[in-house]
Design goal:
The chain has 113 residues and is α/β, with parallel strands linked by helices. The chain has one domain: HesB-like domain (Hypothetical Protein Aq_1857, Chain: A, Sandwich). The chain is 19% helix and 48% strand. A hairpin with a 2-residue loop joins strand 7 and strand 8. The longest helix has 14 residues.
C-alpha cells in the first residue's frame, strides 16, 4: 500500500464528508474504493464502494480523515483525477473529473481514453 501524491488522484472535502456519513451509517471504516472496469456506454466505467481495508496493491489518498483507495491497474486510467460529490436537481452522486478521459457519456459514469 502506497500513499498517493496529490497529482495522482484527489478526494474533495465534499466527497470525504459524504463517504464519512455513509460509512458511519453502515458501521464501516471511511474508505472509498474507486475502480475502473470495462463496460458502460463509452468503454470504461467507474465503480465506487466502501472498503473494509486497503489491499496490498492499493494506492491511498486521504482527505479529512477519509481514505480513497485505487488499485494499481485502475490508477493508470484515473491518474490526475478528482473525485467529488455533487448534488443537483437531477440527484446526488460521486463525480470523477478525469483528465485522461477523451470522451464520456452524458451521465458521467463511463468514459473512453
Amino acid at each position: 500500500m502506497a500513499t498517493l501524491a496529490p497529482a495522482d488522484v484527489q478526494l474533495t472535502s465534499a466527497a470525504a464528508a459524504r463517504v464519512a456519513a455513509i460509512a458511519g451509517r453502515q458501521g464501516k471504516p471511511a474508505i472509498l474504493r474507486l475502480a475502473v472496469e470495462g463496460g458502460g456506454c463509452s468503454g470504461f466505467q467507474y465503480q465506487f464502494g466502501l472498503a473494509d481495508a486497503p489491499e496490498s496493491d492499493d494506492i491511498v489518498a486521504e482527505t479529512d480523515g477519509v481514505r480513497l483507495v485505487v488499485d494499481s491497474i485502475s490508477l493508470d486510467l484515473v491518474r490526475g483525477a478528482q473525485v467529488d460529490f455533487v448534488e443537483s436537481l437531477g440527484g446526488a452522486a460521486f463525480r470523477v473529473t478525469n483528465p485522461n478521459a477523451a470522451s464520456g457519456c452524458g451521465c458521467g459514469t463511463s468514459f473512453s481514453v
